[in-house]
Fold this sequence. Notes:
Blueprint: E1 2-8, H1 14-21, E2 27-30, H2 36-47, H3 53-74, E3 77-81, H4 89-100, E4 104-108, H5 118-123, E5 126-128, H6 131-143
Parallel strand pairs: 1-2, 1-3, 3-4, 4-5
Amino acid sequence: MLNxxxxxxxxxxxxxxxxxxxxxxxxxxxAPVTDHAASDDCGVAxxxxxxxxxxxxxxxxxxxxxxxxxxxxxADVVIVRFGDKYKQWNAAFDAGYASAMxxxxxxxxxxxxxxxxxxxxxxxxxxxxxxxxxxxxxxYVLDGTLPx
Length: 148
């Protein structure tokens, strides 16, 4: 069983596309909480309200970090998606953490991010443009099958 952690952008269904494409492969996927409101508010929902937004965000970030660290540490492959919307600092952090841990890293991003992500891409073993390419990579890694 290959353990794959799906990190990064939460505004599109790229995770579902990869999971559907890899249904026949022996892969266990894990990911951060992708419900934006739940992810942002988990700390105060569990530990109590904060008047200061910094501490509100920090409580949530610390709880989310427990899940993220576990997912990355248990992963054989970490896939980090950088999307078109927003600056995804958390995705860059996850890519750096995975790289520092020696994890096999695949970056999924559009070509227009190539320059901004050049250091992240240099740390990756592969850079994909589409979820389909990621599925093809995973299939090749597991059974040596090429597309087509």
